[in-house]
Fold:
Amino acid sequence: MKTIDFTLIIKEGRKELRVDFDKVLAVGFAGRDQVKAMEHIHELEKLGVKAPESIPVLYPVADLLVTDEDYIQVLGDKSSGEAEFLIILQGGKIYIGLGSDHTDRDLESVSIAKSKQICAKPLSNEVWLYDEVKDHWDELKLVSWQVQNEKEVKYQEGKVSEILRVEKIIEEVSKTYSDTDNMIMFSGTVPLLDGFVYGDSFRCELQDEVLQRKIAHEYKVEVLG
Structure:
């Protein structure tokens, strides 16, 4: 069991939330629109990644890879982040966070499952109650930027309506895992704006324009060797 201390942002203010978790999943090819999901599959096929037989796909991730640090270390210069909302299940409640499914793209062309295990999975230490955003969920937006050679480039931008709804993701996960308590799920992502970019740092946001708030996270990427 691993523990991360979050700050829970609610309409009344802020309070501390300690989350114990022992299961982490990366949900792949989770587009609500199958055409959009295929766009991401085609992006990966350009890198030699074999298309899955069915979607979505559940990839287990070692819980030790989850980190709220502001930097990660990777092998090779072909890795990149992906802005994703997090589904955190604990004590019968659903919390929503923000994370990056940082992935080694070279290894991904060999094995998606193995590529999920080679990079740390950064996340923000702020979360929301799902109940507070559920009624306007589809209006939330994911945005990310890559910094390359000191120049920031917008990398992704899309509404979470492009991704399976929270309830649907939990339903799909429950088909494989009978116990989903103490679990963190990385949701899958929105399409890239202009193909893969490998940057020196990655910044992402989950934006809620209805409640005028956002969750943000930024981390540096250090290439080893």
Summary: The chain has a mean pLDDT of 93. Helices lie at 34-45, 105-108, 112-115, 130-133, 166-174.
